[in-house]
Amino acid sequence: AQTVTQSQPEMSVQEAETVTLSCTYDTSESDYYLFWYKQPPSRQMILVIRQEAYKQQNATENRFSVNFQKAAKSFSLKISDSQLGDAAMYFCAYTLSDRKLIWGLGTSLAVNP
Amino acid sequence: DTGVSQDPRHKITKRGQNVTFRCDPISEHNRLYWYRQTLGQGPEFLTYFQNEAQLEKSRLLSDRFSAERPKGSFSTLEIQRTEQGDSAMYLCASSRYGLSNWDEQFFGPGTRLTVL
After folding, report:
1. For residue B78, what are the CA distances in angstroms to A98, B22, B64, B66, B104?
2. What's the pLDDT score for residue B98?
3. The pLDDT of residue A33 is above 90
4. pLDDT of A38-89, one tens digit each?
């Protein structure tokens, strides 16, 4: 079965600090894309960062970076210099060639001032 | 604003009634996806279209659910004889498939359905 596991239902971080959200996934395919999406309260889902499975280099987008371990099927998200606006639900997801997204249950991130 | 729009944003209905939701994708996007998100859960794939063709329908989608995308533009999702278990947020996303080796899905604000 194709699954995504986010083992941390809730996380908190102090403003300006760094936090890492964990994600593991399971697929037998070799060609896929991994994503982290952010869903702020009562607002729509937005893409934070993506990673192509065939690329060994970890993706980075400003304060957001990933640690992609393909053999371990692990895809964690690191948020540096956390800001109050980073508070949201974060979902890990992946897609195969059909592009439909397979999602984890999410991690609720609180940012403390 | 040229983002994905969904209508209505909220719908309250009584069990057994039929409801229909609409999604307007970004105009040049040829793919349209429907997902369902229940409280405290991640979204689950329901179905998707490429232009007007429905390419896949999840086993989660019972016969009471039907989706259409006439003319390859907006899409509708209809639920007949609603049940309380249908209460969820219904998310629509669209993407421009085929331009590159991946396509970002842009999400609408969702339609929150409450079945009493």
Report:
1. 24, 9, 8, 5, 26
2. 82
3. yes
4. 999 888 899 999 999 999 899 999 999 999 999 999 999 999 999 999 999 9
Angstrom distance (rounded) from CA A42 to CA B56: 29
Inter-residue contact A105 to A9 (CB < 8 Å): yes
Report yes or no: B43 at the A interface, CB cutoff 8 Å.
yes
Classify residue B64 by its DSSP letter. Answer: T
| Higher pLDDT pick, B40 / A8 | A8
| CA distance, residue B3 to nearest chain A CA (Å) | 11
Residues B16-29, mean pLDDT to the nearest whole number = 96
The CA distance from B108 to the nearest CA of chain A, in Å, is: 6
Yes or no, beta carbons of A93 and B45 under 8 Å apart: no
Per-residue pLDDT averaged across B41-60, rounded?
A: 93
Do the beta carbons of residue B18 and residue B80 sit within 8 Å?
A: yes
Q: Are B112 and B9 in contact (CB under 8 A)?
A: yes
In whole angstroms, what is the distance from residue A10 CA to residue B57 CA?
Answer: 32
Exposure b/e, B38-60, CB count within 10 A at least 16 = b? eeeebbbbbbbbbeeeeeeeeee
